[in-house]
Amino acid sequence: MQCPFCQHTDSRVLESRSAEAGRSVRRRRECLRCDRRFTTYERIEFVPITVIKRDGQRESFDPSKLLRGIVRACEKTGISAVRLEALVDDIEAELQQRAIREVTSNEIGETVLRKLQLLSEVAYVRFASVYRQFQGIRDFVDELNSLRERVSQPNSEEPARSRLEESSNRTEEDRSQLMTQLIS
Ligand SMILES: [Zn+2]
Description:
The protein is α+β, with helices and mostly antiparallel strands. It has helices at residues 63-73, 81-97, 105-116, 121-131, 137-152, 162-168, 172-183, and strands spanning 11-19, 24-31, 37-43, 50-52, 58-60, 102-104. The chain is built from seven helices and six strands, in the order E-E-E-E-E-H-H-E-H-H-H-H-H.
């Protein structure tokens, strides 16, 4: 890092600490030639990501828009806003790590579903209903059944969480309660 006073390129780090709520590292440095001190910040490089929509239109990835969609799908499911924000942060971080700067809205939707499936069955099916444009109650039942099949498969890649294990043991009565919750 070039010294702002004498342009010498070697400095030593006196102190490193996290800044901006952990999103950057602040370093206090001392120039090895003129001994003057200066501060540098290290941040993860932010490169815009383009989303290709189903109709072929392109737009920049907007985490707050994604969050709004997920919050709407997860109303009354008991998942905290903080949890959902963390979910969107995860997705954004995953996208930022990829070499390709373009993603289809379909891939984003499937990623959201993969993550929601571990949090709440209701939220999962609700989000799927919006995102996969369910036409009627039959679609809800089909999605719910396929979720349960995936979850109950012993050699499934996804880790089975206790909540989902419980739910796969539900009786028919419980199932109709769940359906009421989903469509209300
Ligand atoms: Zn210097």
